[in-house]
Amino acid sequence: MSYHLPTSAGWLAHWQLLVAASAVFNTVQNFCTLKLTRRLYNNVPAPTITALQARTFAVWTLTSAVVRAYAAYNINNKIMYDMAFLTYLIAFAHFSSELLIFRTASINVAVLSPVIVSTTSLVWMFTQYDFYVR
């Protein structure tokens, strides 16, 4: 099994792969049910969270998972590193704006999870840029 894991130095590539795998789970759940999506956007009436919205969110999540998985195996490639970094920046901006500007979400596990993952990833990638992209 370990021969399928990224071989670069450090743990960032493994983190990228873990986050990508988690995003695939989130993608599947968004295609199958609205239950977890409604937990995330809990400050709006449940009927306003539609299957179309969930599928659109699923496609975005899958797209970011693909970018992050590619980055896991190409962590020293500046373009892949930058693209993965931008996916976390977009995620952070989205969830922060839903919390602070649009107020469609309130602080709970469903929203804290992506905020923590995106913040951790952004800080880690920013501080370790020179180590991975030489």
Structural account:
With 134 residues, this protein is mostly helical. The protein has one domain (10-132). Helices cover 72% and strands 0% of the residues. The chain has helices at residues 12-32, 35-40, 51-73, 78-100, 109-127, 129-132. Helix 4 packs antiparallel against helix 5. The longest helix has 23 residues, at 51-73. The protein is globular.
Fold topology:
Blueprint (H helix, E strand, L loop, with lengths): L11 H21 L2 H6 L10 H23 L4 H23 L8 H19 L1 H4 L2
Overall form: globular
Mean pLDDT: 96
Tell me the number of strands.
Answer: 0
Give the helix/strand class. mainly alpha
Radius of gyration: 16 Å
Number of helices: 6
**Biggest sheet layout:** none
Concise synopsis of the structure shown:
The chain has helices at residues 12-32, 35-40, 51-73, 78-100, 109-127, 129-132.
Keywords:
134 residues; mainly alpha; 6 helices; 72% helix; globular; Erg28
